[in-house]
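Section 3.1: Structural characterization of target chains.
Under the original work plan, the team committed to producing a structural model for every single-chain target entering the pipeline before any wet-lab resources were allocated. The record below documents one such target. The sequence was received from the expression subgroup and is listed exactly as submitted; it comprises 139 residues.
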Amino acid sequence: MKYFIALLVSLIVLSCSNDEVDQTAISNEFIPIEEVFIPSEFQLNQNHQITITYTEPTTCHKFSNLLFEKDIDENSRRAVAIATKSVTEGVPCDSINKTSETTFNLFASQRDYYLFRFWQGKDDDGKDVYLEIEVPVVN
């Protein structure tokens, strides 16, 4: 029995080869946000769901995460949300233009309002374009 186990382990170890190097590269790419579903107002000290839609251009694009930046000015009342994707390179990709969505929750802990800037791509001059939405906070 010991010889059988030793033979089995040897076969498994020898069958694992590093000869083939994975030629797939992963990179990050920003994907424009197309539509945002957000409440018209936030209740103070409550959670609120925000849904973002975007288009996956190819089968190689997969949702990775959301990137948030918070401005220091205006008592940190400004948040920027940008959708990001992981893109594989070196493998065949089919064009699909698939509409997808992701959701995140925001706990409204500040009074006054939240100003969101959702990245929608670049204009003809290469400047970033944002959809700005201001959401008041009520008691």
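Helices lie at 2-15, 73-76.
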